[in-house]
Amino acid sequence: MxxxxxxxxxxxxxxxxxxxxxxxxxxxxGSLIPVLKGVGEMHQHERLQTVLNNIDEETSACxxxxxxxxxxxxxxKRNGAFLVVDVDDDFHSIPRHHVAWKWMGPGNPEFxxxxxxxxxIADRVTVTTKALRExxxxxxxxxxxxxxxxxxxxxxxxxxxxQRDTINFGWGGTITHREDFQIALSALIRSASKNRNxxxxxxxxxxxxxxLRKVPEKQKLFIPMVPYDIYPHTLCYFDVMLxxxxxxxxxxxxxxxxxxxxxxxxxxxxxxxxxxYVQWSMSGFFPKNTEEWYWAIxxxxxxxxxxxxxxxxxxxxxxTREMEILGEYWRRAILE
Length: 336
Known about the structure:
Elements: E1 4-9, H1 14-29, E2 33-38, H2 48-53, E3 59-65, H3 70-78, E4 82-87, H4 101-104, H5 109-121, E5 124-127, H6 130-136, E6 143-145, E7 167-172, H7 178-194, E8 198-204, H8 206-210, E9 220-224, H9 231-234, E10 240-243, H10 249-252, H11 257-264, E11 269-271, E12 284-285, H12 290-302, H13 304-319, H14 323-335
Parallel strand pairs: 1-2, 1-3, 3-4, 4-5, 5-6, 7-8, 7-10, 8-9, 10-11, 11-12
Helix pairs in contact: 1-14, 3-5, 7-12, 11-13
């Protein structure tokens, strides 16, 4: 009999990559029957009935992404399901300026305490990076790294591009990255002034788009936030992916999902030199200061062959993260 597996998420951006893609891939293989439900980011204990309504004797396992309620974890275990807790960020190192600091970081010790208890209760823990594995090994000895990936089946737009006369430098993300974007801002404005063929594309956050008020209208474009299954279409407007990050502990522990997206889209990138990003050498530039950001932008804007060479290498790495490959890692983590 095909096992039923309950996938619990927060309803946030992590659900698409850490729950939806693995669930769909394993369902396609006939490995399991997925049931996906959201319990929110905060006050998860109030969603007890949601869990009870979706777990029974046929539920062999539960994958719980970003849990913050040990009570829900206990209920899952009491109902006989194998509990896999998935964590894709280092909540303990969220910096004070981050919007989530007072909700899910050191500003809310109760949240961190509940997260740690969920990790302790779990039968297995899945994480995105080596740094996160080291964070949680003292709490739970069964911590497995499954890197973030993508699925060619999720969209027909992966790797597509519209004809244009400009070289588009694209950034996409949530409001949590406003501080990070400042790293590249002045270089972008300066390079757009130097080369009129440069266009800056901002996806999702209108506040970040407003930072470009000094850039002429014809050299910038805003694309509203869209669901993950439409997101690859947004990337059709990018010729180069921008991934600036402040080099603090929180970002050093982050995954390389932005570069996975770049590779799946067959474009190069300019990214801050975090530990996970620099593993993608030869696929883009890793500037360390504003001046290096400026010259990296100008160089990729000018040299078509360089963009193509880096894009090809980036795509090769991204193909190792396709869900057909990562699906086996998820199957073992959930069902063995």
